[in-house]
Structure of Aminoglycoside N(3)-acetyltransferase:
Amino acid sequence: MYSVTELIADLDRLGVRPGETLLVQAALRSVGPVVDGAQGVVRALRGALGADGTLVVYTATPENSRTSSSYRAAVAGMTPAQLRRYHARMPAWDAAETPASPTMGRLAEEVRLLPGARRSGHPQTSFTAIGPRAEEITASHPWPSHLGEGSPAHRLYEAGARCLMIGVPVWCCTPLHLLEYWQPDREEQRYRCVVRTPDGRRSWRSFTGTRLHDEHFPAMGEVLAEGLADEIRSGPVGDARCHLMPIREAVDLADKWYRNRQI
């Protein structure tokens, strides 16, 4: 059973710096047993970052999108009547109340629930942050830009933030999707979701945004591991194999690789 103090020591050895802005994406089971579970891990992260540090997590809700892979899997084979009933049961997204998707991991939801945490206003790809830069990171999130210009992912890039991947590979860093917005031949698609209006009603909304892909991410991870070998810090946090990576440098390298790959 790992204590919060032991995890803070692991984070310090890995290179987490007090006062920095840190995006954390985690498979918490890989850490092993921790006193107070996910809440203990959150306390350790905040302890390593200190009072001047900002902790950021990805609190996305892909189930709310009628174009996501999770939605397509859920409705596959449904009749028109079944599909109508499914749409009627889809929970309307509310920034203050809607939990992060279970696919984001328990850590994301624990941070979302912290008093003082701030969440960006995107019904499908929200980020949540706590700390001095939380408002700056999450204040604006245009719906057409899920993970592109003007999103929290872009502000993490601009801020020189780093990404800590706990028990997951380097290619799981969500801001890597930024490179898809920078391609001259990027695809657009129509998105549709249901949200909760200020008066409590359900409302379906549509908007156009960049079509996002992830099939290239595993290969991109190999490029990052080799090209940023001197900048990625790797080591254990509890039982988990972890990687600490600068977001700007990772996105820039991945963008260069991706452009050359298209030729």
Remarks:
- Residues 247-262 form the longest helix (16 residues).
